[in-house]
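Per-record layout

source: Channa striata
name: Synaptonemal complex central element protein 1
length: 208
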Amino acid sequence: MSETAGFNIDDVINVTSLKGDEEMQEPKVEQFLSKLRRLQQGKRSLEDELREIKSVNKSMQMELGTLQTEAYKLEGIHKEKEEMCRKLQIQCEESEQESSRQLKQNQKSEELLEQYRCEIQEFKLKHRKQRMKFENQLHQLIEQHKNLHSVFTTERLPDEIKSAENMLSQLLSTEQMKLDQLHHLNEELQNVRQEKQQDTVTTETQEE
C-alpha cells in the first residue's frame, strides 16, 4: 500500500506529453511500468489478504454458530439441573418432615409402652397382694372351720359356711376381673408393638 501510494495520474500525462524528447521519455515509461508492477503486486496482496480475512471470518462465524448451539444446550441442561435440584430439595424436605413425624410417633409409642408396662406391673403387684390376702383369709377360714365345734354352735354353722362361700366367691370374682384387666392390657401392649414394627418397616421401605 505504501509503495503504490506514490503513483499519480499526472505521471501518465507527462509521459505522453514528452514525445519530442527521447532521452526524457524512456525513463518515464520505465518508472510507470515499475509503479504499475508494484500496484499489481499490491492489488494481489490485498486480494490475498481479503481472501484470508474472508476465510477467517467464515471460520469465526462457524465457530460462533457452534458456540451458540453449545450455549443453548448448556442453558437447557442448566435449567434441567435446576429443576431436578428443586425437586430433590422438595423431596428432602418432605423426607425430613416424615422422619420428624415418625420420630415423634416412635417417642409417643415408647412413652405409651412404658406406661402400659408400669400399669401391668402395678396390676401384677396388686393381684399378688390380693392373692396373698385371699390365701391368708382362706387359711383362716379353714382353721376356723376346723375349730367350728369349739367356736360356733351347730345352729350357726350353715350360716358361717354360706358366708365363707360368699366371701370366697367374691374373692374369686375379683381375681378373675383383675386377670381380665391384665389380659386386656397385654393385648393393647401387643397392638402397640405391632403398630411400631409396621411403622418401622414402612419407614425403612420409604428410605430405600
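summary: Residues 1-24 have pLDDT under 50 and may be disordered. The chain has one domain: 4-207.
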